[in-house]
Amino acid sequence: MSTRNREKRRAKQKARAERNRSWAAGPSNGFDEEPDPRELSWASAELQLTAALQARRGGDESALTRHVAALAAVSGGPAGHEIVNRCLLAWLDRIIELCWRGGWQPADVHRFAGRQAGPRVARLALDAIAAQMRRYAAATVDEQWEAQLQALDATAWWNDDDEWLAARGAREGLERVEVLFDVVELLHLLHGLPAIQMLCPAPGTTRGRTRRGADAANRAEAGGLGGDTGMLDKVRGLLAKAESTTFAEEAEALTAKAQQLMARHSIDEALLAARSTSKAAEPGGRRLGIDNPYEVAKAILLDVIADVNRCRAVWAKSLGFSTVIGYPSDLDAVEVLYTSLLVQATTAMMQAGSRQDRHGRSRTRAFRQSFLTSFATRIGERLKAATEEVGAQAAAEPGHDRLLPVLAARDDSVRQTTTKMFPEVVAKSVTASDSEGRALGRTAADLASLHVRNEMTARR
Q1: Which region ranges are annotated with the description Disordered (predicted)?
Q2: Which stretches of the chain drop beneath a pLDDT of 50?
Q3: What are φ and ψ of residue 369, in 5° steps?
Q4: How far apart are CA 441 and CA 349, in angstroms?
Q5: Which helix (H) or strand (E) holds 85?
Q6: pLDDT of residue 64
Q7: Domain residues of the chain, as ranges?
Q8: Helix locations, 158-210, DSSP H
Q9: I need a surface site. Which of 43, 110, 358, 384 has the fewest CB within 10 A?
Q10: Angle at 28 between CA 27 and CA 29, to 5 degrees
Q11: Are 370 and 441 in contact (CB under 8 A)?
Q12: Distance, CA of 395 to CA of 392 (rounded, Å)
């Protein structure tokens, strides 16, 4: 049994003992008029929660257990528990708001909580996010927030805030004191978050014109090329089929068509923006998770994909994500392509199996790190060649004589935005140390589904 589990067991025993003593003794406070029990319960919860957080911050497991047990055994019976529930939600509400002000978004908070404390605390973070988001009118919430909340299914699913903690415990199959440990852990994690780059307006502000709205206006002014949402859905569908099929040729054809759609879409967007008199979308940022294991190689894979799609990626290793800077349509392309190629790379790596050195010791980690690093490097070479081919074909079309200057201007704009957002970024080179992993990773990259076939249509 782990130290934390032993501490939780002691906390449950202490909580039961505190309740028994409280019920046996009855009310006796030395005052002629008994204080309002609701005020006592709220004050007690505030004090115990503050003390628990201080103990957690100081690494004092014994004190943490004592204060969580007292929090679970707060006086007032069921009414006291309801007050504690509301007190905890109020604390979470305040700290989630501070996260928004510090540049964090719903997906970031959820990802960080899961990375640091596991899926159970990540689910608790979704509760806190859903409860906090009830404050804001829909017109004051940016579309990036809305999309992330929908993707995470962050909803206030419980019926009454008074019963929230009990409902969460019932969902997880946990006793009250165990849920309280999770709440303290979540508060501890979020309280220590650093400020990061603000990628879109925080909720509660007027969001104004969305980037998709600006893109749509440009399309309408230029004669209309259709919405990019439908195109992206089609690309995702093609890549999903490519990842699930067992036939290599079918996967190659599906992925090739998806990439062709993305490449031409990016070129069309650039030319539309150049011709339009409306305010065009500007470079922005998007954070993508970089998870263990082999996070270095995964960060490299994302970096090379971003680079050939006229984006820049900046990895925050300690926080578990990379921020990709670029124009909206290019960011979409990077995200869907990274997701698909990561699946292909991981599948190929697992099929290669594990490795041992000549003394029988495992070298699987070094082998797989080298495999993925080499895969990423080779994919970058293939993507660059494919992008140059599509660009050359587009530049040769009638009316596309301005293409190269337009793309160069967008590259400069992305570079300037990246420098402004990350003025102190440091570039580091990474080498693949395992020669076999390096060779097999390069071979797997050659077999990845990226080839662009000339006979496939590039138009939407």
Answers
A1: 1-38
A2: 19-37, 208-210, 212-227, 429-447, 449-460
A3: -60, -45
A4: 8
A5: helix 77-101
A6: 95
A7: 3-26+35-191, 211-447
A8: 164-172, 176-191
A9: 358
A10: 115
A11: yes
A12: 5
